[in-house]
Structure formats: structure tokens, C-alpha cells
From TrEMBL:
InterPro entries: Ribosome_maturation_RimP (IPR003728), RimP_C (IPR028998), RimP_N (IPR028989), RimP_N_sf (IPR035956). It comes from Actinophytocola xinjiangensis. The lineage of its organism: Bacteria, Bacillati, Actinomycetota, Actinomycetes, Pseudonocardiales. NCBIfam families: PRK00092.2-2 (NF000930). Signal peptide: none annotated. It comes from the Bacteria. This is Ribosome maturation factor RimP. Belongs to the RimP family. One of its GO terms (cellular component) is cytosol.
Length: 166
């Protein structure tokens, strides 16, 4: 069923982050988490659009009789976007987190940093005033830190200056 859901999400222009199916009373709960590369993220209108696309695809699958073993009839569909507390695990997560403060744990170190540019293999981080390139393969866990104040202008300037010099 995941390929069907992923295809419906992709046709709507988004990325499937996670698919979970669980029993909820007599029905199945189908939870679909979607994301996008757009800096603005996903709003309610986009969630509704994806929900309609996934519902249509699942109903068609049920109609063919091919999903009967998985959904077993009626189901509840929940479409959502990932929250701020989700781990940064893909390059697009890091790109969207640009200039945000993050908590990072690698095999040998744990630190907070400000996110700079990310490529397909790693990210530039401002750590204690120094720019450090960290490979995604070296990151065990990373999440965005909630900030209640504007980020320090000096940190932003340091990242933008470093990125402009490349």
C-alpha cells in the first residue's frame, strides 16, 4: 500500500515522510505524514489537497479488492505535516532549517549550532563562532531548537558571509 500512497502524495506535489496503519476500534487508522521542500511548509489547504488525493487512491485500491487484506474495509485517514520536533534526517530538512538553531549529536560530540547551507552530503554549521562542515553520515540525531527571540545578527552575518565567499 505504501507505493500507492507515495504515488498519490507525489502527484499532489509533496513528499511522503511516513505512513502508519493501525487498528482503531473496528476501523483502520491510516496516518500519512507529508512534507515539501518549500520554505513555507504545508498549510491546511495543501493538507486537504493531499488528503483528497490519498483518499481517492485508497478507495480505488479498495475497489480493486487489492487492499482488502490491509485495510479490511472502512478506514479513517489522517493527513498531517511533521512538527518542529521531528528529527532532521534528510538534506531537505536541513535546507528548510537554514539559519535555525539546532541541537546536534554525533558519535563523539553533542552541541548546538546555527544551520547554514546544506548539500546532498552534509551541512555547514556555525558552532561557537566557527563554521564547521558536518557530514550527514556523522550525525546521529538533530532537532530544531525553539527560539523565542530573533537570532543574533552576528551569527546570521557570519553564515551569510561564509556562504557568499564560496
Amino acid at each position: 500500500m505504501e507505493p500507492v500512497v507515495a504515488d498519490a502524495v507525489a502527484r499532489a506535489g509533496y513528499d511522503l515522510e511516513h505512513l502508519q496503519i493501525q487498528q482503531a476500534g473496528r476501523r483502520q487508522l491510516v496516518k500519512v505524514v507529508v512534507d515539501t521542500d518549500a520554505e513555507s511548509g504545508i498549510g491546511l489547504d495543501q493538507v486537504a489537497e493531499v488528503s483528497r488525493a490519498v483518499s481517492t487512491a485508497l478507495d480505488a485500491l479498495e475497489g480493486e479488492g487489492t487492499a482488502g487484506g490491509v485495510l479490511g474495509g472502512s478506514y479513517t485517514l489522517e493527513v498531517t505535516s511533521p512538527g518542529l520536533d521531528r528529527p532532521l534526517t534528510r538534506p531537505r530538512h536541513w535546507r528548510r532549517a537554514r539559519l535555525r538553531k539546532v541541537a546536534v549529536r554525533t558519535g563523539e560530540d553533542a552541541f548546538t549550532a546555527r544551520v547554514g547551507d546544506a548539500d546532498d552530503h552534509g551541512v555547514r554549521l556555525l558552532v561557537d563562532g566557527d563554521i564547521r562542515y558536518v557530514s550527514f553520515a556523522d550525525i546521529d540525531h538533530a532537532v530544531i531548537e525553539i527560539e523565542f527571540r530573533e537570532p543574533p545578527a552576528a551569527e546570521i552575518a557570519t553564515l551569510e558571509q561564509e556562504e557568499g565567499s564560496r
